[in-house]
Amino acid sequence: MMCDDANFYRLYCLLVDFKLTGVFGWIWSWWSPMSTNLLRAAEKQILTCLKTAYKGWYVDIGSVVGPADKIWTISLNTDSPKTPLVLLHGLGSGVALWCLNLDALAAERPVYAIDLLGFGRSSRPVFSSDPTEAEMQFVKSIEEWRQEMQLKQIILLGHSMGGFLAASYAIHHPDRVNHLILADPWGFPEKPADVVLKNNIPFVVRAIAYLMQPFNPFWAIRAAGPWGQALIEKMRPDLVKKFSPVLSDSSLVSQYLFQCNAQTPSGEGAFHSMMTGMGWAKNPMLKRIHLLHKQVPVTLLYGGRSWIDNSAGEKIRERRKEGYVNVQMIPGAGHHVYADKCDVFNKYVNEACATFDKSDEDTRRGNLQVDSD
Amino acid sequence: MNLSFAGCGFLGIYHVGVAVCFKKYAPHLLLNKISGASAGAIAACCLLCDLPIAFFLNFRLFLDLIIDFPQVLPEDAHLRVSGKLHISLTRVYDGKNVIVSQFNSKEDLLQALLASAFVPIFSGLIPPKWHGVRYIDGGFSDNLPTLDENTITVSPFCGETDICPRDYSSQLFHVNVANTSIELSKQNIHRFARILWPPKPEVLSNMCKQGFDDALRFLHRNNLISCTRCLAVQSTFVVSEILDESFEYDPQCQECKQHRQEALVANLPDTVLSLFQDAIDSANKGLINWIFKHRGMKLLSILTLPYTLPIDIIYAIFRKFVALAPHMANSLVTMCEFLLDQIKHMCSHMSQPSKQLVSGNVSCRLALTNYATESASAPVSVASTIPAETTVPSSADKPIHLKNKVNFNFTLDLEDSDLDKSGKISANKILSRRSSYGQQHQTHNNNSSSSQSANSQSASSVDHGCMMGDDTFENILQVTRHHDALMAFYYMDGDKRTRTVSLQIAKHPSLSQEIESTIAGSASWRLINAVHRRDGQILPLSFTPD
Predict the structure, then answer these.
(1) Together in a domain, B13 and B152
(2) Which of residues 176-195 of B touch A (CB under 8 A)?
(3) In-domain check, residue B106
(4) Residue B202 neighbours by CB under 8 Å, 6+ apart
(5) A359: which residues sit within 8 A by CB, 6+ positions away?
(6) What whole-number distance in Å separates Cα of residue A190 and Cα of residue A281?
């Protein structure tokens, strides 16, 4: 019986995945108003609000996942000698959403913001369906990018899924991370056993949840085709509103987000394989946080209203008694903490960066070398 | 710091739990503005008016809100909440959000609350009016009205809200419906089903507890719990310092620490819990409840739904009618009065249909001529259709000095297309009516000598014009008695007696229009005679013969 169940489910998954092949693929391309030019234009228009000069280019990282992967990078204030700050965005967004932070963060140090592989304007290869492997592919792409950029040490700031990947990167390349800043990171707590809960949820709700599982998170936006942008505006008017102080055209953000997610869901697919249930990580980071080198300082910034379980911050503090862990909560901010309270967020990030800027860099490096020996 | 309660129908009990917690541990937060939509607004109003929470357990339907709420609300409720309570409403005609905070009376406040909780179709068909504009549930435009940056948001749906239940699902996806962030979690979908249908008392009790716990957790995380002494210090801070710094607490204060420790293990107060227990007990007690809780009974009730539903609907309509009867009584009385008036009016019209059909137009012209004393009998040339008139001057032999010449000109013009239908007025009458005729009268008046001829003349001129059968003296008297003269003039005759000539248009209902006009011409002359014979005093325009 169990076997039958699994087989049916696999068949169902295959049917769902079928959509991008054959005749259906042709209809799809006609239906979806996706265009890389529109994405480029939207990003450019959003970034016009920046006061600091920025440069954007593709960094060729060679064959990491696909045959030739490129990572879209924008940089600001690259002349500064301080440790550069690298920004990793969350699921389904891109570099342009940092527009409220780039100016303030670039005032003191070089700032690089990248579109993660499989997201935004970067190339979209097909990731592995194995969660650990997919995660490693992301980490490798970031590491290749760092080598290509010839950055010795970086301050890694990740939001949501970017925070998960940043933590994973810091575990695997501790000597390269000067400071790990996690803004409302995803994938830290473990999935609780919901045996009790299951009985309280009606059958219909459970059935819907079950049927939705094989779908990628943003399938609805793609399925909506020409109405995808309107769907984003309808479902997330708050996202558009967050950026209204700097953007005159309110539809820019929704257009950018739609174009980001209307393309082939490659990074999204990787996220989907890393996730289980409804938004839990298959390999939660809390289980592995002890692997993070004790010399890598960690700063956690949580939005006071965020849905991400912020008790994880306290747990990290407990599990890393020797290392530096700073947990900050920004009241009144939601999951998009960098946009909700951008001033407070920028202040906290700049403070965190300044804490480990230069002073104990040498000692830290010495320690790391001792440890690795 | 302001508070904001989300609209959520029957999940509003969650707000009660939050309110209880705030009252106990952070009363200083309740001094500011509280906003809300729908059930959130009602909860906010209850909180500001210190209403017992038992009320929430009892009210089940929108209808209950209409009947019960006015009774539990204190008389000065509007004074207490004005300026503090902000109710979110959705204007019907453009769908825009409106936030109201000034209430002139208790009814005013009630009406705003009703409008804010009005879900079309579910609550009724016609949206209620507030200050002359129709509004519906605020949840359609702004379900979680935030007044400023420092608003503590309370929502019974798990999402990006300050105080909300945290579901055991690390949800990635949440939607933003009318400013309320709602996670797409299984529990939230389940909660949605409870918005419009009242859940069982057990569920309500759990929701309330959940609200209390969530609020407590929020207060804890933001260091908002402190002892009364520290609170007093803080509230003075608020005046001078900026808001964020006012919530800095003194970690040394032992009393605060103790308070905090107590709060950590705190539960919903016993008084509240016992209320819930009572409600649960009353729902579970008794044989009938036991039977209805049985599975077989549940199945049966589902199967008989097609039969019981119409009965339920009829019962609901009947209840609504009974509830609204006192309000409807006045309007019913007015409606009946209006109908009776209309019927009366119609009856009176039915009895005299012809009067309504005739439209008349009477015009009159008056010319006065002064003659010199030397002049001979001047030829009088006035268009006249009455031959008797022309004979009048010839009756006098000696030269007459004309002092005055009075020229009346009557025009009677009646037109009506419905005349033929009525059939009551013959064709020749219409003709005579259409012709305009002038009637001329000359008064020869000698200043010094007596003018008996004038008397005789006027007497003679009276005799003509009696063409109509109805033109009886009685009729004329009646007319003059009831109506003022259209015009009149007075003159002195040789015997130093003042005479009056008055012209009257009769409008007595018993006379037809045609007759009236004729009377108007001739009646005045008769009346002169009457006056002449009786006395010589100056008479008013209307007089009464014996």
Answers:
(1) yes
(2) 176, 179, 181, 183-187, 189-190, 193
(3) yes
(4) B280
(5) none
(6) 7
Q: Is the domain of B212 the same as that of B337? A: no
Pairwise CB contact (< 8 Å): B171 & A279: yes
The β-bridge relationship of strands A280-281 and A275-276 is antiparallel
Q: What Å distances lie between residue A4 and A7, A14, A206, A215, A358, CA to CA?
A: 5, 15, 19, 21, 60
Question: Kind of pairing, strands A298-303 and A177-183?
Answer: parallel
Chain centroid, CA B327 distance in Å: 14
B chain contacts of residue A268, beta-carbon cutoff 8 Å: none
Mutate to test the interface with B, among A307, A327, A336, A337 (most CBs of B within 10 A): A307
B54 and B169: one domain? Answer: yes
Q: How far apart are CA B209 and CA B231, in angstroms?
A: 25
A200 lies within 8 A of chain B by CB: yes
Count of domains for chain B: 2
Token pair for residue A208? Answer: 């819907």
Q: Which of B295, B322, B350 is the last residue of a domain?
A: B350
Residue B170, pLDDT > 70, answer no
Could you tell me the CATH number of the domain that includes residue B176? 3.40.1090
Q: How many angstroms separate the CA of residue B102 from the nearest CA in chain A?
A: 28
Q: What is the predicted pLDDT for the residue at A168?
A: 94
Asked whether residue B206 is domain-assigned, the answer is: yes
Beta carbons of A225 and A33 less than 8 angstroms apart: yes
B418 is catalytic: no
pLDDT at B12 over 90: no
Place of tokens 């309330």: B208
Q: Is B221 on the interface with A (CB under 8 A)?
A: yes
Q: Which structural domain, as residue segments, surrounds residue B24?
A: 2-224
Nearest CA in chain A to B149: A332
Facing B171 at nearest CB: one of A192, A206, A307:
A307
- Average pLDDT, integer, range A30-43: 82
Q: Read off the pLDDT band of A347 (50, 70, 90).
A: very high
Same domain, B313 and B218: no
**Cα–Cα distance list, A220 to A235, B46, B177 (Å):** 11, 41, 17
H-run or E-run covering B99: strand B97-100
In terms of phi and psi (left: phi > 0; alpha: psi -120 to 50; beta: otherwise), the region of B274 is alpha
- pLDDT at res. A350: 92
Domain assignment present for residue B472? The answer is no
Record: contact A279-B173, CB cut-off 8 A: yes
Over 80: is that where the pLDDT of B238 sits?
A: no
ipTM reported for the complex, 2 dp: 0.74
- Token pair for residue B517? 């006009």
Final residue of a structural domain among B191, B209, B224: B224
Q: Which residue of B has its CA nearest to A333?
A: B160
User: Do the chains contact at A217 and B173, CB–CB below 8 Å?
Assistant: yes
In a domain, B177, yes or no: yes
Query: Is B222 close to A304, i.e. CB distance below 8 A?
Result: yes
A&B contacts, CB < 8 Å: 83
Q: B470 catalytic, yes or no? A: no
Q: Does A209 touch chain B (CB under 8 A)?
A: yes
Q: In terms of domains, do B34 and B163 share one?
A: yes
Please give the average per-residue pLDDT across B140-157, as a whole number: 85
Query: Is A279 at the interface with chain B, CB within 8 A?
Result: yes
Which listed CATH number (3.40.50.1820, 3.40.630.30, 2.40.33.20, 3.40.50.150) goes with A34-219+268-371?
A: 3.40.50.1820
**Reported pTM:** 0.66
Report whether A91 contacts A186 (CB < 8 A): yes
Same domain, B82 and B197: yes
Of B44 and B53, the structure prediction assigns the larger pLDDT to B44
- What does the DSSP 8-state code read for residue B386? -
Which one from B35, B116, B123, B137 is the annotated catalytic residue?
B137
> Are B170 and B69 members of one domain?
yes
